[in-house]
Write a structure and sequence with these properties.
11 strands, alpha/beta, disordered N terminus, ABC_Gly_betaine_transp_sub-bd, 2 domains, binds trimethylamine oxide, Glycine/betaine ABC transporter substrate-binding protein, single chain
Length: about 325
Amino acid sequence: MKKRLIAFTMLFGSHFPASSEPIRVVVNDWSSQRILAHIASQIFIRLGYEVELINITVDVQWYLLKTNRVDLQLEVWEGTMEDKYSQLHKSGEIVDLGNYSVTTREDWWYPLYVKSFCPGLPDWKALKQCYGVFASPSSKGKGVYIAGPWEKPDRARIKALELNFIVEQLDDDNALWIRLKRAVDKRRPILIFNWTPNWVGAVYPGEFVEFPEHSLACEADPTWGVNSRLVYDCGNPKSGWLKKVASRRFTRLFPCLAQGISSFDLTNEEIEQLSAQVNRERLSPKQVAQRWIKDHRTRWAQLFSKCKVTLPNSSR
Ligand code: TMO
């Protein structure tokens, strides 16, 4: 399989249209994003393009996208990335390649048994009383909220809602799931960052904390909401978007691929199933992508049917 792929790439990838630079696809630090990055790059490679996968954090990706140093980010989530996305999109420095038919949510979350330690959940006001059950030996009695590395207004929210919590920030999705499993195995209280679509809810039944409803005014206008002096006295969006974003270079040099990616769509269920193959079946993101490519050939071939790199007549 691998051998055939390489031969294919050598045969059709040798002549590069409009650019000698490879397409640079962003790989972040959670499963579904990694899988979609591999799916896109596998498609491009099969069409004859040269691809480079670039492992970077969400924080770093924005600058690289706007300076055309990376080309494609397949999962931009409203709950964690809306600020930066809007800013760069408004100024014309990145290109929006459209939303998936998906609704997303990213927020504080707990396995269901935690409700018995903190009656009143999922209402956030319950945390005003029961924060102590989430304390750790080093948190001086404050509750600990376990977050990922993604940009979040968690500390601002804690302040605005006057919650007695501190934030512990972990490095990637795996670190979150290790902590979650450890807590669930011992049925200990835990409050952790989670999102949908994701594989977690199918394995560990749980719920998001219900904070005051999100709005842009909550983020911009201090007088909005329960705290009249501070912004972020609300939760993240409950039905957020999930979109694809590209550099200007990508849409200029590869308009056909940009068109194909903008028509590329997935559902919540599909993204959950893809991420479960990494986190439950223990396949690598690349293996999951290869499986998807094989099983959905007509679907992607149709989207990119006009994008194949062709050799000029003279070259052979
Ligand atoms: C960006 N993420 C889906 C991990 O919240």
